[in-house]
């Protein structure tokens, strides 16, 4: 069980090297081909981004030569406003970084949210300023009995199957003592050879699902969130911008998310 085609979005930002390093390490682990897609807008070739933007292909291929990963390099249409030219349909997994206000106008506007919403491919979103470290050893699933949660759990199977520890975080308390939803998730994943722990957040109070998730002990050692609660508007805003700064800063871990 593994990803065979991984795609990473490349740009002239200071987050690019960490994103690229992570993509290569994941491709090595899964024996996958890695496609790098240059999504710099025309404005990236002016000012402080210029040298980094111009050297993307050279840097990408230099890392490929050292790593032994089979790669492809593509350049997105600098005038493209949509996702159709970003090659996302031809991958099992996409890798991007949270939008950075400083990158506005320098990265094609469809990346990352519009691509995720339209391409039907799961994406790992790295936090701004993220430093490369192991990802996928201890995973927390933000679970809810929904289509979105079910989709992302199945999209994450190659990572869940390799994890040392998987915890399902359930925000909503059970309807009654006979509610077996999370136990059925446990049995379903066990059928795939994946053992999970369960963390029930039964006293929500005034906390949002995001706040409860980050208050959970399950996240203390976690290195990846599998975002089954993506349909929740506050989660989407926190991941892609538009919320208060303090809540946005809580996203210190990579998030694997599907739509």
TrEMBL record:
SUPFAM superfamilies given in the database record: Adenine nucleotide alpha hydrolases-like
Highest taxon of the lineage: Bacteria
Span of the signal peptide: none
InterPro entries documented for this protein: Universal_stress_UspA (IPR006015)
Organism encoding this protein: Mesorhizobium album
PANTHER family, per database record: STRESS RESPONSE PROTEIN NHAX (PTHR46268), UNIVERSAL STRESS PROTEIN HP_0031 (PTHR46268:SF15)
Family, as annotated: Belongs to the universal stress protein A family.
Listed name of the protein: Universal stress protein
């Amino acid at each position: 069980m593994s990803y065979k085609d991984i795609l990473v979005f490349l740009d002239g930002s200071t987050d690019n090297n960490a994103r690229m390093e992570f993509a290569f390490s994941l491709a090595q682990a899964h024996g996958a081909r890695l496609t790098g897609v240059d999504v710099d807008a025309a404005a990236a070739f002016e000012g402080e981004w210029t040298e980094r933007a111009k050297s993307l292909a050279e840097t990408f291929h230099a890392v490929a030569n050292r790593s032994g990963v089979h790669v492809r390099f593509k350049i997105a249409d600098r005038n493209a406003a949509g996702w159709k030219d970003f090659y996302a349909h031809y991958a099992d997994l996409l890798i991007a970084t949270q939008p950075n206000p400083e990158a506005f106008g320098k990265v094609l506007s469809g990346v990352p949210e519009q691509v995720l919403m339209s391409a039907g491919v799961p994406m790992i979103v790295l936090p701004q300023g993220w430093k490369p470290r192991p990802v996928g050893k201890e995973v927390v699933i933000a679970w809810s009995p929904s289509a979105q949660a079910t989709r992302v759990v199945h999209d994450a199977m190659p990572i869940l199957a390799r994890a040392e520890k998987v915890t399902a975080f359930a925000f909503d308390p059970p309807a009654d003592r006979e509610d077996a939803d999370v136990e059925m998730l446990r049995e379903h994943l066990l059928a795939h050879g994946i053992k999970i722990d369960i963390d029930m957040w039964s006293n929500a109070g005034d906390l949002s699902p995001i706040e409860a998730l980050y208050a959970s002990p399950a996240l203390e050692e976690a290195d990846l969130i599998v975002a089954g609660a993506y349909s929740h508007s506050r989660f989407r805003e926190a991941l892609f911008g538009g919320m208060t700064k303090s809540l946005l800063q809580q996203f210190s871990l990579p998030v694997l998310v599907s739509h």
